[in-house]
Amino acid sequence: xxxxxxxxxxxxxxxxxxxxxxxxxxxxxxxxxxxxxxxxxxxxxxxxxxxxxxxxxxxxxxxxxxxxxxxxxxxxxxxxxxxxxxxxxxxxxxxxxxxxxxxxxxxxxxxxxxxxxxxxxxxxxx
Length: 126
What we know:
This protein has 126 residues and is α+β, with helices and mostly antiparallel strands. The chain has one domain (8-109): CATH 2.40.50.100. 19% of the residues lie in helices and 35% in strands. The chain has helices at 29-35, 82-85, 89-92, 117-125; strands spanning 8-9, 14-19, 22-27, 38-42, 49-50, 55-61, 65-69, 74-79, 101-105. Strands 1-2-3-9-8-5 form a six-stranded antiparallel β-sheet. The radius of gyration is 13 Å and the shape is globular.
């Protein structure tokens, strides 16, 4: 299982890559394995500011539909349009081509509540 060191993680299996006050977010390699083949992504929150843990969209796999949650309080600024025609990018490349949203982080202090790669690794191995 791939758990890059340079990302933040949530207990709900989302990841966040931070660059200044902005970031990109998606679901982890563990999450995409658990979901199976991803067939559809829906994000209707572009332009909205959401609190930590609020649903920003849904991810649909062959077997299930799950909510996607914000890792920190942020404004959803962009949806990865490639996922409209190629949702399977989340299965094949969850940390690069399969990112889901770009966000503007409203309070960088909230990053301290997220998991490191080492902490997340222990969570999924438990």
